[in-house]
Amino acid sequence: MSESSFLELKNVYKYFGDVKAVDNISISIKRGELVSFIGPSGCGKTTLLRTIGGFDKQDAGEIILDNQSIGSLPPEKRSTGMVFQNYALFPHMTVYENVSYGLKQMKVPKKEQHDRIREALSQVELGELGDRKPGELSGGQQQRVAIARCLVLQPKVLLLDEPLSNLDANLRIALREEIRKIKDKLDLTVIFVTHDQEEALSISDRIAVLNKGVIQQLDESDKVYNYPSNKFVSTFVGQANFFTGELHESGGERYLDTGTVPIPIKKLKEKPDDQPKPGEKMTVLVRPERIKINASSPLEGTITDIIYNGNFTRYFVEVEDYELKIDAFNTRDSKQYQTQDKIGIELPDSPHIIN
Ligand SMILES: Nc1ncnc2c1ncn2[C@@H]1O[C@H](COP(=O)(O)OP(=O)(O)OP(=O)(O)O)[C@@H](O)[C@H]1O
Ligand SMILES: [Mg+2]
């Protein structure tokens, strides 16, 4: 195990019959790190989390936490705390009793129990609702009880399965920040499952993008967004325009010959000495906000559809046989175009190559 690795999975597999829910996953997470798992429904996020927490037993592989192999231990012996996707609260107990449950099992002294429960409930802004039962709470409030129930146990690793999915937009953002604060304060290691790519990009130290039980990329947020390792990652995180063609060079200018729109390419990749050669076939990714609307550009397109998003507007633009997505950032006096408008389009000159 490497020095900086606090939680390590080595070649972990979990099958359900023919379904490879977790397919040879190896991952190494540092102490105090917050790593998000994202991926489409059914890709294995919950199963992976349950396997780490001990609620599912891996078919093969090893799980190491803080230098201890935990793969064969029952959940309560792992120092992991899991918040389930469906909360799994005890319906007949009050909020306070739900949060106290684990502490009672651990035989924590009464006074300490009380202090820790009060603190956990106030951390998730539920200080006033200790006497209610889960059935008397909103979905978001129940979700927060589940988080408090976990925090109160002060686990080494917090496993959160879509913990914010039922909250309204503002509370979601507030709790996101709260989770990061709690993590920093307690030096907690957190695995955070979400469907919401924006949430993953903003809350995580690193993001693991999963598909069909396999990690496609594990990287810092900006790397996943700007340098996705394959087509799946580029479309799962963020919006994408793709161009496929052959690299050409003429008069010192390089461009991608797509058969229709020529894509200018001055520079590719970050490493100047690792440039692709003329004649190479490739697909490049251009994010919508990197395409500019510029009246003096010779490349012309027609707007076919418009989605206004407040801070930016997404234009769907027909250019030859492509339909491009272009995001224009809005200021108060930005020009708003109409469908059927013809606009000049300026493509960025250093797109990212997709393997
Ligand atoms: N107990 C089970 N028995 C049989 N198959 C299961 C079981 N649990 C999960 N699976 C299957 O394993 C795969 C992964 O499921 P999992 O719940 O981990 O996905 P997920 O990424 O969490 O999806 P979602 O985003 O919808 O929550 C799916 O194909 C699912 O049908
Ligand atoms: Mg799930």
Description:
The radius of gyration is 24 Å and the shape is elongated. The chain has helices at residues 45-53, 95-105, 110-123, 139-151, 169-186, 197-203, 221-226, 231-236; strands spanning 5-16, 19-30, 34-38, 60-65, 68-69, 80-83, 157-161, 189-193, 206-211, 214-219, 241-250, 253-257, 262-264, 281-286, 292-293, 300-308, 312-319, 322-329, 342-346, 352-354. A hairpin with a 2-residue loop joins β4 and β5 (68-69). The protein is of the alpha+beta class and 355 residues long. It has two domains: 5-236, Rossmann fold (3-Layer(aba) Sandwich); 241-354, Nucleic acid-binding proteins (OB fold (Dihydrolipoamide Acetyltransferase, E2P)), CATH 2.40.50.140. α2 (95-105) crosses α3. The protein is built from eight helices and 20 strands.
Topology:
Layout: E1 5-16, E2 19-30, E3 34-38, H1 45-53, E4 60-65, E5 68-69, E6 80-83, H2 95-105, H3 110-123, H4 139-151, E7 157-161, H5 169-186, E8 189-193, H6 197-203, E9 206-211, E10 214-219, H7 221-226, H8 231-236, E11 241-250, E12 253-257, E13 262-264, E14 281-286, E15 292-293, E16 300-308, E17 312-319, E18 322-329, E19 342-346, E20 352-354
Parallel strand pairs: 3-8, 3-9, 6-7, 7-8
Antiparallel strand pairs: 1-2, 1-4, 4-5, 9-10, 11-12, 11-14, 12-13, 14-20, 15-19, 16-17, 16-19, 17-18
The structure holds adenosine-5'-triphosphate and magnesium ion.
